Amino acid sequence: MLLLKNISKRFGGVVAVDGVDLDVAAGEVHALIGPNGAGKTTLIGQISGSLPTDSGEIRFLGKSIAGLPQHDRVKAGLARSYQITSIFRRFSVLDNVALAVQARSGSSFSFWRPVAKETGLFEEAFSILQEIGLENKKGHISSTLAHGEQRALEVGLALATQPKLLLLDEPTAGMGPEESQRMIALIQRLINRPESRVTVLLVEHDMDAVFRLADRISVMVSGRLIATDFPEKIRMNEEVRKAYLGDEVAA
Amino acid sequence: MKKIAVLIALACLFPLAMHAMGQYFYIGFATRVLIYAMAAASLNLVLGYGGMVSFGHAAFFGAGAYIVGILAVEGVSSVWIAWPAAIAVAALAALIIGALSLRTRGVYFIMITLAFAQMMYYVFVSMKAYGGDDGLSLPTRSTPGFGIDLRNDFVWYYLVLALLAAVLYLLHRLLHARFGRVIGAIQENETRATAIGYPVYGYKLLCFVISGAIAGLAGALIANHTGYVSPSLLHWIQSGTLMIMVILGGVGRFWGGPVGAAVLLTLEEVFSGSPLLGDYALHWQLPVGVILLLVVLFAPQGIAGLVKKKSAFA
Predict the structure, then answer these.
(1) Which of A23, A203, B99, B298 is the most exposed place for a label (fewest CB within 10 A)?
(2) How confident is the model at residue B45 (pLDDT cuts 50, 70, 90)?
(3) Do B61 and B39 contact (CB within 8 A), yes or no?
(4) Of A92, A104, A109, which has the smallest distance from its Cβ to B197's Cβ?
């Protein structure tokens, strides 16, 4: 579904992403792990189009998308969530999601008809709130939500664009164990949707979440991918243990 | 809805009341307030709703005024030609300035819009054929035909009032339609708006052009109102004045522009003509500055924000 060939990104003298090859198969949950500063978020930025890529090829559903601006990639079915919550804070929860639904349903160069009359928009947004478990909060201003709820809304915004591939950048960031469990359950529901099953590329530090969700895991260290494999193989991989997992066990 | 009806009724009765009291000066003054209300409302669209701090809005206001002035001098005084031309030229200027400026952000955007406006200011200063520094007197007010004479101050007042009402209604529709929601979303979180699939640049540019077009119409009106255009209409002080109106009235408040224009012009009128202040009346900006300071400190939502508390998107 997603194919990266020799992707690189440098910021001045720093090589953040260094010749990464990666393929994400349709229907899988592909976890991307690695220590802080490994370049995971940079890579997500390059895939989603918020960061230009220095060199290499990005193919999505068989087409090269390296030249497409981010909003066109979203239309093609590639949506992301952010590690640091990025929602429309002054808008209500329902309005947040309705904005994302509006982005993909019809033209928004509409200057006369009140949005409030577009019931379809809000019905669709509400069904997404049900999916992410925020249906009881629909009228709340989103900045007043608890952290875990804001994280769920973050995923909901990406979801509302009807992505084929969802790039989740640390969905459990800053969450307590209970909230994390809820987020993991949410992601499991998404990948087991009877129709419109979502493929997920998941950046995550929470190893519990990674091993429960991932079909395959790629490990990134200092801008390079050092391994891509099934979870049990990754667990055994000496290089990975040394570079990453071992650190965590020792800590 | 009721409040709006009362407001419209008051605005309609105002010249009649002034006529009854023999205070003709205030009919002209009120017309000026209505025109600046339109200009300030156009700035509030980009500044308050779009989050684009344009410090060069006088460029579009002045361009609209000059087009009417130049056409009038050249013998074209028809409302149906001169005013659409003023709007079109202001919109075109906004398109060009916006297309370049919107590639920058924050302080850079403020500075580059200011720079473009000052460039246009000097263009008109150097146009000797049209008065240069001294400006240009209009031989007559624009003519709408149909036997309507805009030189009649009552007719003129009601026409300006009707146009302001039309512009405000248009803005109201626009802000509550899909386009307005996207603009609000971009102002709130541009990164996120892009990430859910909006081509942010295009929306901002169109918002900027609509705003410029409205400012151009206001400019066409001010040229007719004073019968005179000069480069000072495009000066950065003019941009600053419009900005002060919006800040006084309420940034991102629907009535912010009109309220700010009314308050600022009234303050100017009161302070600059006040016998109490005597010689100090020359420095009317000083008390106005104090009031602006108080508003910014204690009513950051502006005066319109004091009157009515509403959620960001109602």
Answers:
(1) B298
(2) very high
(3) yes
(4) A104
Burial label for B193, CB within 10 Å (0-12, 13-18, 19+), is buried
pLDDT tens readout for residues A200-217:
999 998 888 999 999 999
* Assigned token pair, B117: 């406006």
Tokens of B161: 């009032």
The length of chain A in residues reads: 251
Calpha distance A72→A82 (Å, rounded)? 18
Residue B11 vs residues A121, B214, B254, B304: alpha-carbon distances, Å: 39, 21, 18, 18
CA distance A144 to A134: 13
Q: How many helices (H) and strands (E) does chain B have?
A: 13, 2
Domain boundaries defined on chain B: 26-235
Can you tell me the distance from the alpha carbon of B30 to that of A60, in angstroms, rounded to the nearest whole number?
61
If phi > 0 it is left, if psi is from -120 to 50 it is alpha, else beta; for residue B54 that is beta
Q: Note whether B241 and B264 are within 8 A (CB).
A: yes
Indicate yes or no: CB of B191 within 8 angstroms of CB of A50.
Answer: yes
Residues of B in Cβ contact (< 8 Å) with A88: 185, 188-189, 192
- Residue A15's SS3 state is strand
Q: Give the predicted TM-score (pTM) of the model.
A: 0.90
Domains of chain A plus CATH, in order, are 2-250 (3.40.50.300)
Q: What is the dihedral of CA A107, A113, A119, A120, to 10 degrees?
A: -20
pLDDT digits (tens, 9 = 90+) for B153-175: 889 999 999 999 999 999 999 99
Distance, CA of B31 to CA of B36 (rounded, Å): 9
Task: Give the separation between CA B186 and CA B209, rounded to whole angstroms.
Answer: 16
> What tokens appear for B234 in the block?
């495009």
Contact residues for B272 (Cβ-Cβ < 8 A; gap 6+) = B281, B282, B284
Identify the burial level of A33 via C-beta atoms within 10 angstroms of its C-beta, where 0-12 means exposed, 13-18 middle and 19 or more buried: buried
**Residue A136 in this model has a pLDDT that exceeds 70:** yes
Residues of B in Cβ contact (< 8 Å) with A103 = 196-198
Transcribe B24-87 into DSSP letters. Answer: THHHHHHHHHHHHHHHHHHHHIIIIIS----S-THHHHHHHHHHHHHHHHTT--BHHHHHHHHH
Q: How many CB pairs under 8 A join A and B?
A: 106
* ipTM value for the complex: 0.89
